Structures are given as C-alpha cells and as structure tokens.
Amino acid sequence: MPSWLVLALALVLDAVLVLAHHAPHPLAALGNWVDLTYDFGADSVHWPDADFQDFRLVSEIKDFLSVGDDQFWTESNTVCSPEHLGTHVDAPSHFAKDRWTAGNIPLSHLVAPGVKLDFSVEANADNNYAVSKERIIEWEKVHGRIPLNAVVLLYFDWERRWPSVVDMFNTPNPADNTTFKFPGLDPDAATWLVSDRSIVAVGTDTPSIDRGQETQYRSHIILYDKNVYGLEMVANLSRLPATQFDVFIAPLKLAEGSGGPVRIAAFVLKEDGADLGYTPQHGATENIVVSYASRNVANWIDLSHPLSPTIPHWPTSKPLNYTLTRVLNSPYIEYRSFCMGEHLGTHLDAARHFSKNGQSINEIPLDHLLGVPGVKFSIKDKAAEDVNSVLTVADVEEWEKRHGQVPQGAVVLLEFGWADKWDEGPEVFVGSKVPGDPESFNFPGFDKPVVDWLFRNRDVVGFGTEGLSLDAGSSTHFPAHRAIASAGLFGIENVAHLDEIPPSIVISQQLSRTYARTCLVL
Fold first, then answer.
1. C-alpha dist (Å) from residue 476 to 59, 256, 276, 316, 463
2. Phi first, then psi: what are they for 377, rounded to 5°?
3. What is the reported pLDDT for 274?
4. N vs C: which end of the chain shows fewer Cβ within 10 Å?
5. Four-point Cα dihedral 178, 180, 182, 188, nearest 10
6. Mind listing the domains of the chain with CATH numbers?
7. For the whole prediction, is pTM greater than 0.85?
8. Are the C-beta atoms of residues 461 and 489 closer than 8 Å to each other?
9. Dist. CA 206–CA 234, nearest whole Å
C-alpha cells in the first residue's frame, strides 16, 4: 500500500487493522536475532511468596478523544508488578547490600558474549541437578574456554513448563518453598566462575539461579557479592547454539531496583558469516557488526534516564511508586514492588498508543529494535529562537547535503538542546510554570509533514526525541504521534544524552512492556 494512502486513511485505519511496517535489517545476512524474553503480563510467573503483589495492568485511557472537531484514538496504562516477575534481572543488590541496583549495572556488563551450557539431559534425569565446576570444565573441553566477561546461560529444558507455576517450581504446593524441585548452579561452581572465568552474569530458564532445594541461596550470594548479576526465567534457550552469539540485556532502569523486568536478545551469527561478525571487511554492514559486537562495548552510550519518583512526566502518566516489600538479614534479601505509567522516563510509544489496532510493544520485530542505523537531527539553533520549533522536510534535506541520505530502516532522533533540563525539574523540562497543564507546554518536536516524508521516502522505522513528546509542546492534536502510529512505526520520548552522539550512529533498543532502554554504539 502506498505510504501516502496509509497516512491519508489514518482515521479509517484506527478502526480496522494497521499493517505493521517492516524494513530490511542491515545484519540479516550475517545472523539472526533470538528473543529470550517471555511476554510481561498477568500470566507471568513469579516467586510464590505471599508478599509478592500480582501483576496488574490498569487502563488509564482507552478511547477516542475529541479536540474541537478533531477525533483520534489514544491508549495508556499503568503497570503494577513485583520487580522479580517473568523474565527478569536479579541486580546484585537483591542479595548483597550496597552492590549494584538494576539502574546502575554498567553497559559493559549488559552487552556481552554469551555461552549456553546445555544440561537438559541431566536435569530431566534429576530435577534437583546441581551444575558443578567439573561439568563446566568438561563442557569447555568440547566448546572452548568461556570468554572473558561472558553471560553464562544454563539450559535445563525448563521452558516447556512455562507458564505453569506448578510446573515451573515442580511442586503441587508452590506456597511451600521447601518442596521446590528444579536444577541450578552449585555454589562451588559459582565461586569458580567468578574467580577463574570473570563472568558478568548467570542466566537460567528456571525460576532461580540456585536449585529449588537450596533454601539459603548460596550461589546468589556468591555471585551477587561480586556484582555478578542474575537472569531468571530466560526464554527460548533451546534456540541458541553453545557459542557464537552476543547477548543484549536491558533491565528496566529502576534507580533503586533490586531487580526488574528485562528484555534479553541474542544475535546468533550464521556459520558462513562468523568471520564477518568480528573482522572488518569491505562494506558498511560488516563495520556495523564489528562496532556493534560486545568486543567494543566501550563505544556504547546509554540514552536512558534512570527511573525515580521525581522525574518529569506527562500529567496523565502515573509517577513511579515504589513499595519496599521486604528486607531480610540472614541471608540478606531485599525486593520491592512498583507501579508506574507506561509512558514514564525514557519510554517507547508503540503504535497502539495512538492507533486502536496498532502494534503493542511485544509485537514490534526485534530487527527494528536492535542494530538498526540511526540518524540525529539537531535543531538547537531554531529552538533557541522559537521554543516550539519543529523539524521540517527542509531541515532533513539540508542535513542530507552534509551527511548523506538517511539510510533505509533507520531510527530518527531529534536533539534541540534539552540535555541539561531533565535534572532542572518538571517546570523547566516542559517549559511551563504549570506542569500539570499540557496546553501550556513549550518544547520542540517533529512536524507531521516530515514524519510523512521520512516514512514515504526513507522507509524509517521509528522516531525519538529528547523532549516529553514527539509533538511540539504547543500541539494539542498530536499530529506527529498520529502519523507515526498510523504508519505502524514507534516513537521514543525523553531520550537522554543526545548531545554525546554524532549525526550518524547504530542503535540498539531493548524494549519491555513498559519502557525502552536505548543504547547507541559509535
């Protein structure tokens, strides 16, 4: 369907099906993405503790809105959840006081080479199987030494039990943790992996790094005390090879989090592309892979603001509310529950936000979110003269004269000099003395015609801004949002540190139901 027709029929398409936009991925010839994350929702499994609150998705608005004679769809929710639900990260602070929280695990530990250790045969023979140091050394004799700073993924064939709580914990009585029967990592092996292999994380497809019968959580304590974090209930490990893949891990950036929902993906190199994965060849794609791989993780820049209760937010989006569920001292354990609006902090607007039948976050293809080319347009000079200025087609054409054509399948990022305003408070960030009144907001954004033009002529997949909204603050009809959503694209708002990146970049976005953790590699 021609792009102009998609956009012209926006109101009609809101009432029917909006076809997902799909652009070719630049890394497709070299490998494949594997999503290692279960959908985040009411069916997600969590530790069966009475103190854990269940997942709740509270609809804040889900209807057509009228602004004058104009009418458009909008949908927004509040999410309430325990930190340790479904596929999630255990931050070291979960079992080790004063260690890293979910919000400050460094990027160098979140983009890493991966290895999968398959102990499914042993686990099926013995549901309480413990992975020993000796068995890992035997694995290395076949597959090679575990790389430095690796993520070690333990596969026990437990994914076939998802999402049954009874099956995942392998007990008819999940309320009694002494009855749990599932495999895990032996404490001696945990000590050896930290001291002799310098790993950054251990992941498992079971509910816990430790065996079900290990009630003192010794492997947790050994790993987390050394700031080695955990990944639990990891999905689709059966689809990974033993080696030759990188892992991309994006925890919800909860500043005080002992853990949180996480989006995990692996890039698995094709056999005939293995050399291209880490050695520069002749074309741009090979250079992207070399920069993008975990070997050069020092080049990554985190473009996400930490989530806290005091950050600027849209008035209809609920601020973060933390509840400290429990702190124990023998052994030390802390965990929380939280409630927050979906559109809080650095977050993603899926098409569903402004298109009734558009994609939700879990329906966006991974190859639109990872390793895609990116471009940054800066309108700082315009914004200094007019706080409600917009990026126009003329701005894009002038940019292309200097930097070349916007690549197909790119994410477009908009900078206008807002980098320092985030920490100056909501009034400064939204440009209004009344931060609860959107009609008084003042900040730059995207012009609807430039959204149409970039979709039609450059086949972009997403738009991002360092401001609170993709539209300029003075807009009350959200024309850019609606054009983006009707085209089946996504948006990212409150992007951090755009002042630190050049005009042309490679983007990786790890997305969960409620957030975007956006990173870039130069």
1. 22, 35, 48, 14, 19
2. -105, 130
3. 43
4. N
5. -20
6. 1-27+299-305+346-522 (3.50.30.50), 88-298 (3.50.30.50)
7. yes
8. yes
9. 8
Query: Can you give 26-95 as a three-state secondary structure string?
Result: CCCCCEEEEECCCCCCCCCCECCCCCCCCCEEEEEEEEEEEECCEEEEEEEEEEEEECCECCEEECHHHC
What is the model's pLDDT at position 502? 84
How far apart, in whole angstroms, are the C-alpha atoms of residue 72 and residue 353?
11
How sure is the predictor about 291, in pLDDT bands with cuts at 50, 70 and 90?
very low
The DSSP symbol for 188 reads H
Amino acid, res. 132: S
Euclidean distance between CA atoms 209 and 190, whole angstroms: 10
Distance, CA of 105 to CA of 85 (rounded, Å): 19
Q: Are strands 390-391 and 445-446 parallel, antiparallel or unpaired?
A: parallel
pLDDT range class, residue 295, cuts 50, 70, 90: low
Contact present, 206 and 155 (Cβ < 8 Å): no
At 405, list the tokens.
């054509």
CA 350 to the chain's CA centroid: 13
* DSSP annotation string for 274-305: HHHHHS--SSHHHHHHHHHSGGGGGGEEE--P
Instruction: State residue 327's pLDDT score.
Output: 80
DSSP code for 517: E
* pLDDT of 508: 52
